[in-house]
Known about the structure:
Helix content is 45%, strand content 15%. The chain is α/β, with parallel strands linked by helices. Helix 3 (62-72) runs parallel beside helix 4. The longest helix has 29 residues, at 95-123.
Amino acid sequence: MSSIEGKVCLITAAAQGIGRSSVEAFAAAGAKVIATDINAERLADLEGMDNVTTRLLNVIDADAVTKAREEIGDIDILFNCAGVVHSGTILDASDADLEFAIDLNIRAMVRTIKAFLPGMLAKGDGAIINMSSVASSVTGVPNRFVYNATKAAVIGITKSVAMDYVGQGIRCNAICPGTVDSPSLQDRLKATGDYEKARADFIARQPIGRIGTPEEIADLAVYLAGATYTTGQAHVIDGGWTI
Ligand code: NAD
């Protein structure tokens, strides 16, 4: 395990949920965190925190990612946390739903890696962490066609980048959480129309008996940033869902 103290770490989708907890965890571990998101209001809550700077960044805007790279310079750790959940089967998925999820869950990640990887290669050191899910190639979750498909692609991206650069100081890992309590999870529970039943159903999927916390996922991200002997893996953290 190497220390991440003083390392520059860019986190996408950092304003709430797992991204926000990760900002706090990386900063507490001594990293210099650049917290990015499209939500200016929620990002503003992070301003003034030790070791944290904030920046508006829409990861589906290719020019904005290029500009961010130019203005920020080299980084040591990239945590691609941005993603969107679409509910429904293949027959419920419109072209627009699929296109949007491909753009946010897949292309955005490719864009940020392409932007920041050359700087990591020049230093011969870099850690990339990509947010996948157990709803991916790990397990097929019902009614999550677009999500399963795009999060499976994240694992493919992770393995490909890890394999191509394993001899050049770059590690690339994916995180595959089960259900985690975040603002968007709360929105999904409310959208069912029966919050208590939906919550009970979600808890029932996790043999450990509860939904995960964003802090638990953030701790794994910090671990992976400094875990010098793991690369190309899909790290499952799911309360026993896929035992
Ligand atoms: P969330 O969905 O509550 O918040 C997502 C954040 O992403 C918001 O702050 C939003 O403003 C930001 N965002 C949206 N579009 C963006 C864009 N184009 N550019 C930059 N930022 C953008 O957070 P969460 O539930 O913790 O999810 C974070 C990641 O974890 C996602 O990739 C999600 O798929 C994954 N994940 C979540 C769970 C879960 O149960 N919550 C489980 C497995 C994986």
